[in-house]
From TrEMBL:
Residues 383-603 form the Mmc1 C-terminal domain. The lineage of its organism: Eukaryota, Fungi, Dikarya, Ascomycota, Pezizomycotina. Residues 39-70 are annotated as: Disordered. InterPro entries: Mmc1_C. Residues 56-70 have a biased composition (Polar residues). This is Mmc1 C-terminal domain-containing protein.
Amino acid sequence: MPPRIPRLVVGRSSIFGLPIPAQSQRICPICSLSRVSLRASKHPTPRPGQLRIQRRNQSTAPSTSTADILSTRTFADPRNALRSALANLQQDAASFVNISRLQLAIRGLEQEAGQETIRIGILGLADGGNSLEKAKELLRLLVVDPLNPEEEWERILVDDQQGKPILIKVGHNGKDEIGGRLVQELHVSSPLLNGHKLELLVLEMDPAGDVERFTDAVLVPTMEIPTSSTGRYTPVTTPVHKSLVVADGLLGAATLLSYSPDIDRESINTAVNLQIGTPEERATLPVRTLNVKLGAEALDGFRQSVDNALDYEKKWFASGIPEIQEWIKSGTAPTDGTTKPPVLSLVQSLLRSTSQAVDAEQSRRLSAALAAKVSSSDLQDLRQEMSEWAERAHTELRDQLDIAFGGQRWSKLGWWKLFWRVDDVSMISNDILQQRFLTEAEKEIVFLSGRIAETGIADELSSQATSKNWAYKPVVEKDAEATLGSEPPPPVLKDLVEPRDHLPGRIKARPWPLHIPATRDYLAQETVPALQALAQKLVLQTLSTSSLASVFAGLMYVSSVSTGLYECGAVAALGIVWSLRRMQGKWETARKFWEGEVREEGRKAVRGVEGVIGDALVSSPLQLQGDAELQKARKAVEHAEAALAASK
């Protein structure tokens, strides 16, 4: 960004002999005079008697109460809150915000609401002076009073051959400043624009680059200020609220078309001076066209004689200048206590560009860090290996569990074998988990994590595990009743479907994802004991029910003479069959449920590892230098955006 001149009154002859101060102290040269006068009007010099009274009051009033009152007044007014937020933005995001535009926005908020001064730039393209000449003539036609004869400021504006920037203050009371100033100031009265408090700055500019750079060059044009002794020129930025870019001829139209496809037409407008074709033909062009010469002829004819009013009106509207006047008047009229739209648009545009600058800097730092550590080919290879690992893991989970649940050891836990193998349920289930549950996939993910750490994408995967929450927390479906059928599961079986979030803490952190061992630990320590307890409970219930049925049948046989042996045997057989059938149904349902639980938790573990490694390969959890600075700037922008929303 070009350097800015110090906060001094514009036009002091000593300005050329002073060195340019630091970045934080620079300010737009046009704003400085207004800020000094504004402070003088807000703080007039008291008389000696008033000064003594003020000092006596200050000495007797408590300081804390005064501070509270000032703080309350500052934040009760949304404009003051927005101004304070912009001041904080200058401190916290100085590297990302345009200081010139920020000072212009603060200057507007310091003025009375609805009476802000709006600065509009009339910029001529750098083409040897032709566009600048047309821009000055257009500015004269926009402001001139056709009922008055030619005034002195018109001759100064049109006859200037040095190409110095000229600032026209419309409706401001003051004396014209012509010589010895950085910016030549002319005070003009216009019947159309008086009361709008406008500052019209005309100068030459040379936009270059893409649309973003074009916007910056138009809204923050640069003036070339000659130094006093060396003959060199110092660039000084002069921000504006709105800009009109003026070009001349077909070449100028082609230049504007290459820079102005996606710009905000409320803040930036373009016009081309073309004297070819009819107004209807020029209206079909993709740019706004003007005929400055035709407008000047209309003005000269009207000043010569009022009888030329009809000819003046016809040529004036055919020149296209009234449309430009309406665009200048849009949003600049005084309002009743509300902030003018160009001031709010300036703040909004400033915050948007600052946020984009912070995002661009973060992307640049991230790209630089990634380019310094790992290449795109390595990332692609790691992603391919991760995809192949996930495919092998799902295949292993399916095949190994099919072998385990269809093998001889698992068949030993059939319902009718529980009477002599009830104590083997935990041993056989744990053996299946330790030998068949993603054993090869766990070894391969350890190797793949080492490859990732070797490339530098994650410097310390063990430290990333805590921040990324790599430790697995099982999420178990709670629709066990639908899975088990219409009959709800026994109370002990309910433990199978309750997640245990404390289990991952038992596994020590390792430099690789811990989803698989944590899932195995969860199944072994939570679901297997529940399955063991259910087996023991079913065996006990079956034996108890069968014994009770047999005892009841025996009592019937002994106590009743009419009851025969066959009837008593039928009662005993009914109790035994019913208890065995109940045991068979509950145990087989529990076994099927546990098999499905192991498969589902294994699938979730593989997906969890795949997601964590995939995120690491995509987003690259690198620690960027200056990340605290970016976060501080982002918070300052968010605070200013909230204050802007409250002030609307």
